[in-house]
Amino acid sequence: MLLSMTGFGEGRAESPTIAVVAELRSINNRHLKISYRSSDGYHGLEPEAERLVRDRVRRGTVQLNVRVDRRSRAGDYRINHEVLLAYQEQLTELGGVHVQPTLDKLLTLPGVISAPDATGADPEADWPTIQKAINAALESLDEMRRREGEALAADLLAQTAAVTTELAGIEVRSPLVADAYRERLQERVGQAIEKVGVTLEPSDLVREVALFVDRSDISEEIVRLRSHLVQFEATITEAAKSKDGVGRKLEFIAQEMGREVNTIGSKANDSEISARVVEMKAALERVREQVQNVE
């Protein structure tokens, strides 16, 4: 199945010492670009974190955010006795005020309790937990990308089906264009020479029609476009077997299909074919937009 380049994933993991939340966001990019942000003390894990992402993502701009919260135990907190006594002395010595401060109020004053050092990171010891969170985020990201990819595949196949329908109509109409041109030419020339009394040789008419047919022949373009359509649809169907992603291949085939349609439009001197070419161009424009999202 196709994979979209846009998605979001979140993963969580815990250990006795830390709680980790990893978030992944991906958007379109022709290449793979990874940015890494983390809590203080864990920036050195960027190479390992990027390696995990590269093992799962082939194209796109990926932003990885890793938040690490250290677990605090009661024994990690310390009471600053000097600060506590200083507060107590100042409160009891206030002139004209006799206050006997309670301990619970004193403990809420700034500086009385020292919290544990939140930056006491241990990247090497914490890496297995962080790795678990990142892998969970990657699983979540892949699930969203697969769902988006299924929708992309359905839309792309619908657009190529529309092109195939219009192409079938062009195949039917194309052989009739020369006959219609010959009839129009014969009528116009006949009206013109009738006024001057000139005789038109049949060979002259045949030669002119032959030149028109040669200039407007689109049989090769039709064959190539049909081949591109088959290849495009097969690439989508077989995407699950590809290890490198199929987005770039689909982009290339879409460009080739557009080139053939443009040639058909420029060579075919027929209003019905021109109308069908307009419909094919509209469908292929949608294809070109959508393949930009495919990994």
Automatic annotation (TrEMBL):
Q: Which Pfam families match?
A: YicC-like_C, YicC-like_N
Necessary cofactors: a divalent metal cation
Name the keywords, alphabetized. Answer: Endonuclease, Hydrolase, Nuclease
Q: Does the keyword Cytoplasm apply?
A: no
> Its Gene Ontology molecular function terms?
hydrolase activity; RNA endonuclease activity
Q: Which residues form the Endoribonuclease YicC-like N-terminal domain?
A: 3-153
Q: Which InterPro entries match?
A: YicC-like_C, YicC-like_N, YicC/YloC-like
Q: Where is each Endoribonuclease YicC-like C-terminal domain found?
A: 171-295
Q: Which family does it belong to?
A: Belongs to the YicC/YloC family.
Protein name, per record = YicC family protein
Question: Which organism does this sequence originate in?
Answer: Botrimarina colliarenosi
Lineage of source species: Bacteria, Pseudomonadati, Planctomycetota, Planctomycetia, Pirellulales
